[in-house]
Amino acid sequence: MLKIEDLHVEVDGKPILKGINLEVEAGQVHAIMGPNGSGKSTLAYVLAGRDGYEVTKGRVLYKGQDLLEMAPEIRAAGGLFLGFQYPVAIPGVSNIYFLKAALNAIRKHRGEDPLDAIDFMKLSKEKAALVQLPDELTKRSVNDGFSGGEKKRNEIFQMAILEPSLAVLDETDSGLDIDALKVVAEGVNSLRGPERAMLVITHYQRLLDYIVPDVVHVLIDGQIVRTGDKDLAKQLEKEGYAEVRDAQPL
Amino acid sequence: MTKLSPQTLLGSLPTSFETGPEWLRALRGRAAATLREQGLPTKRTEAWRFTPVRSVANAEFSPEQGSAPSLTSPVPEGVTARSLRQVLEAEPTLLEGRLDLGGPPTHFAALNTALFSDGLWIDVPAGVAIETPIELVHAIPTSSERGVAYPRVLITVADGAELTLIETYAGEDAGQLTNSVLEVDLGRNAKMSHARVHENAGLQVGRVDVRQDADSNYRSTVVTLGGALLRFDVRCLLQGKGAECQLDGAYLIDGEDLVDHHTLVEHQASHCRSRQSYRGIVSGNGTAVFDGIVVVHRDAQKTEAHQENRNLLLSETATVHTKPHLEIDADDVVCSHGVTVGSLDEDQLFYLRARGIPEDLAHSMLTYAFLESIVEGVSHEPTRARLREALLTRIPHGDRVRGFT
Ligand SMILES: Nc1ncnc2c1ncn2[C@@H]1O[C@H](COP(=O)(O)OP(=O)(O)OP(=O)(O)O)[C@@H](O)[C@H]1O
Ligand SMILES: [Mg+2]
Questions:
Q1: From atom 7 of ligand 1, which residue's Cα is the shortest distance away?
Q2: At B405, is the pLDDT very low, low, confident or very high (cuts 50, 70, 90)?
Q3: What confidence score (pLDDT) does residue A234 get?
Q4: pLDDT at B64 over 70
Q5: Within 10 Å of residue A243's Cβ, how many Cβ atoms?
Q6: Which amino acids bring their CB within 6 angstroms of ligand 1?
Q7: E strands, B213-272, where?
Q8: CA dihedral for A217, A218, A222, A223, sign (positive or negative)
Q9: Are B196 and B220 in contact (CB under 8 A)?
Q10: Domains of chain A listed by start with CATH number
Q11: Across the interface, which of B350, B357, B372 has its CB nearest the CB of A105?
C-alpha cells in the first residue's frame, strides 16, 4: 500500500526528516510515536502533499505509484486521507457542502456518478451518528467555532464519509475526553479492513488500547529509531523516549 | 451636450434653481458658490487622491435625465413616500432644515444639491415598524448619449420606527454618471437596515449622510458588482447616547474598474457602538480604495468602535489603497482597526485540496466565502439570494461552486 524509502525532507533549508523507511501493507495499522518536534506531522504533510516541504532524497510509493509526483487532490482521489493535527477553520464554507464537493470530486476522479443531495444527506446522517457528531455541527462552516474535540470528531466524520484506503491520522486523539476517544476509535475501527491501511500518529498508549496497531514505530529527530509490536508502545509509556532510544541506538 | 465642469453646469442652471422656498434657494446658492470656488476634485484633493475624476469631469454629458428613483411597489400602509418636488411645491416647510443633514455639501454633493430637480422622501412615523422592505430602483438609462442623474433621497425614521430599504442601481451603459445624495434621519430608538446594490453601475458618485438619535440603529451593506468608477461616501453622526451603526461593504473589482469607499463615523455621544467591515476582491487592473475615519469626541465615553478592511488581490496588476484611522479624544473607549491585503489562505486551500477538491474549485469556494460573509448580513432574504447568485456568476468558476453553497 505505502512504501517510504530513505525519505529526506527539508523545511526552509533545515533538515527535518533524515532518512525514513517505512512499509505499510493493506490491512495493517501502524502507529508512529515520538517526542514533540521529531517530524511526525512533517511526515504526514509530505504524504498529503502540502507545499513548503522539499524532498531532497528518497521516494514514496503509494499503490505502486510515485506519490510525491501527485497533486494533493489527486492523492485524495486515490484514497489517501490526512486527519489534521490542527484542522483549519473555513468560515463561509459549510461543512456538509464542502464534504459533498469533496466526495463527488473523488467519485468523479474514479469515474463514478456523483451522489445526489438526497443520497448524500442519508450517508452524512449515518456517518454523523457513527461518530456522534451533532447535526448542527455538520451544517456549520467547516470547523468554524468548533471546540478542539469537535474538530477532531469532524475529521473522523469526514474520514467515515470519504472511506479512504490509507488514512494518516495525526494526533486525532489529542484533546479528546475519554468518551470522545472511544467514539473516535470506534469510527476508526469500523473502517479497518483487508483493503485499507492506517498510519496513526499519537503520543498516548491509551489510544492504542482501542485501536490496536500491528506495528509501532518510534520517530526521533527525523529518523525511525525503533520498530516493534504493540508492546513497544507500552514500554515507551513506562520508560520514556530517551530510554528506548538509548537501549537500542541505530 | 455639456461638459461636467461646474462652470458649464452652473452656467445653465435649470429653472428649479430660481423657484422654491427661500431656504432652498439659499441652500442651492451656497452649494453653487462652494462649487464655483472648489471646482470638482482633482488628484491634489486629498480625499480624491486615488480616484481620477478628471476623465469624468472632462467628458461631455447630455443634460440631466431619469433622476427620480422609482419604487418597485406601493409603500406599505403607515409609510409615506412622496416626490420631493411635490412636497417642495405644496408644503416646503416640512423639508426645511432636512436637506442638509450632513452640513454644507462639497464637490459632487454640492453639485447634486445645486441641481437636483426631484427625488423621494420616505417617512416612517413614530412607532411604525415596517417589516416588508421598501425597494428603490435607480435605473441607469441606456442611451447613446451620456447622461447625468442627480437622485436625491431623504429618509426619516421617527422615534421607535423601523425600516428596511433595498436600493438597486443598475444599468448597462458605463457612460452614465449617477451623482446621488441620500440623507437618513433616525429618531430615538429608530432602526434602519439598508442595502445598496450596484450592478453594472457605470460611473457613480454617491453620498449617504446618517444622523442618529439615542439608541437608534443603522445597518448598511453596500455591494458593488461592476462599474467603471464608483465612489461612495458614508457618514454617520452618532449624536444620541447608545446609538449604533454597522457599515459593511463587499466589492468585486475587475478590468480597469475602480471602487472607492470613504467612511466617516463620528461618535459624538457616549455609549455608542460602531462597526465597519469592508471586504473586496480585486483582479485585472482593478483598483480598490478604502478610507475610513472614526472620530471619537471628548464626551463620547464608553465608545466601542471597530473597523476592518480586508482585500484579496487576485492579480499582480490589481491595486489596493487602504487607510483606516481613528481619532480619539475620549479616554474610556474600546477601538480597533485592521487591514489585510493578500491572497487566499494557504492552509485553507490545502485543507480543501487534501480532501479531494481540485485547486481551481477550492479557489472559487474560498473566494465566494470571503464575500459571502458580508452578503450574509443583508436582512432581506430575496435580496440576499439575488446577491449570492450575482457573486456566483462573477467569481472565477463560480458556476461550479453553485450547489455547494
Ligand atoms: N514551516 C516550518 N518552518 C520551520 N520549521 C518547521 C516548519 N514546520 C516544521 N518545522 C520544524 O520541524 C520540526 C518537526 O515538526 P513537526 O511538526 O513535524 O513535529 P511533530 O513531531 O509533529 O511534533 P508534535 O508532537 O509537537 O506535533 C520542528 O522542529 C518544527 O519546528
Ligand atoms: Mg505534530
A1: A11
A2: low
A3: 85
A4: no
A5: 12
A6: A 11-12, 14, 16, 34, 36-42, 52, 85
A7: 217-225, 229-238, 244-253, 258-267
A8: negative
A9: yes
A10: 2-246 (3.40.50.300)
A11: B357
